[in-house]
Design goal:
Blueprint: E1 4-9, H1 12-24, E2 30-34, E3 40-42, E4 45-47, H2 49-59, H3 76-83, H4 94-108, H5 113-123, E5 129-132, E6 139-144, E7 147-150, H6 151-157, E8 166-170, H7 179-186, E9 190-195, H8 200-208, H9 213-219, E10 224-227, E11 230-231, E12 234-235, H10 240-246, H11 253-259, E13 266-270, E14 283-287, H12 294-314
Parallel strand pairs: 1-2, 1-9, 2-5, 9-10, 10-13, 13-14
Antiparallel strand pairs: 3-4, 6-7, 6-8, 11-12
Helix pairs in contact: 1-2, 1-12, 4-5
The chain binds ligand FO1.
């Protein structure tokens, strides 16, 4: 099938499938919508962790063991900052720092985040369009007891230890969807929408919380395929399973399918979850969803696209 593929992704888990999709699709066929709810201003820099993880992954610069930042990184800036008593809980590598400096400089000159990310991906030789979900500020905040936490405080400084009772996507209600996304969703040139196996609450929900986004996806002509971030009752990485338990949601692929119910046409689960029960109107497809090698990423990408194309042919 031809046409563009729109992938919704957050950080580490989503970036793996995004790389697989980029490798199996032709140049320019993949457009990635990145979550900006994790963004924050730190040490005076505008930092967009999920966009950067996606960018580095697509550019072949990502550090595979950490899952964020650049490989072969050096940490002289961090060491010198610590020597000066500066905050070093959020690690900024020397080469990574250049990206934050350049993004902050461009944003300060009035450039939009979309324009900055498009410039950076071209400079790094990435053919895939990497688009923020919005150019307006949206910040994911988490309530634990009576305390509201900023996202990176929760995720990095507190290592996801606080029990989360509520999540807010501050600013989402007045954020405007990035226009290119709505144009794709409303257009005729869309082959599939792929909801990558990122954390549904921390990476995908901020994107869907932007006015118009959820309805544009639900009403778009192309099949919508989500990949389960839960395999056999566990999240591959990150706080997804812990958060589901804290929300009183069973930690199963079935529960994630229910979460996405009215939005998706197909739900891709791992072979370990072949007995997942998805809501009636959703097709369930099994695939090997644990992505370790590049071949795993490409194989899952092909399974996702085949599932979408099968839906298109049946319509
Ligand atoms: N995650 C950590 O656990 N520790 C860090 O020191 C850290 C630094 C960091 C710097 C740049 C960047 O783009 C990401 C960074 N991350 C770090 C990951 C980040 O917190 C997460 O990628 C997302 O916010 C959640 O996906």
């Amino acid at each position: 099938m031809s046409g563009k593929v729109l992938a919704l992704a957050g950080g580490i888990g989503g970036a793996k499938l995004v790389l697989g999709l980029a490798r199996v699709l032709g140049d320019g066929e993949l457009v990635v919508v990145g979550n900006t709810g994790d963004d924050f201003n730190h040490l005076g820099f505008s930092i967009s962790p999920d966009l950067d993880t996606l960018l580095y992954t697509l550019a072949g610069l990502a550090d595979r063991s950490r899952g964020w930042g650049r490989r072969r990184e050096t940490w002289k800036f961090m060491a010198a900052l610590e020597q000066l008593g500066g905050p070093s809980w959020f690690r900024l590598g020397d080469a990574d720092l250049a990206l934050h400096v350049e993004r902050t400089r461009r944003l300060a000159s009035g450039e939009s985040l979309t324009s900055v990310m498009d410039h950076l991906r071209r400079e790094l030789g990435v053919a895939t369009r990497l688009v923020p979900m919005t150019d307006d500020p949206v910040r994911t905040r988490l309530r634990s007891g009576r305390e509201w936490l900023d996202f990176q405080d929760y995720f990095v400084r507190l290592r996801c230890e606080p029990a989360v009772e509520e999540i807010a996507y501050v600013g989402a209600e007045s954020a405007r969807p990035q226009p290119e996304i709505l144009a794709l969703l409303g257009g005729k040139d869309l082959r599939a929408v792929v909801i990558c196996p990122s954390n549904p609450f921390l990476s995908i929900e901020p994107i869907l919380a932007i006015p118009g986004m959820r309805s544009a996806i639900a009403q778009c002509a192309a099949p919508v395929v989500a990949v389960s971030p839960i395999i056999a009752g566990r999240a591959v990485k990150g706080p997804t399973a812990k958060m589901m338990r804290e929300f009183g949601i069973e930690v199963t692929a079935t529960a994630v399918a229910r979460h996405y119910a009215r939005l998706i046409d197909v739900f891709v689960v791992d072979e370990a979850d072949v007995d997942a029960e998805v809501p009636g109107e959703v097709e369930c497809v099994t695939a090997s969803t644990l992505m370790v090698t590049l071949a795993d990423r490409k194989r899952l990408a092909r399974s996702v696209l085949a599932a979408a194309d099968a839906i298109s042919r049946s319509r």
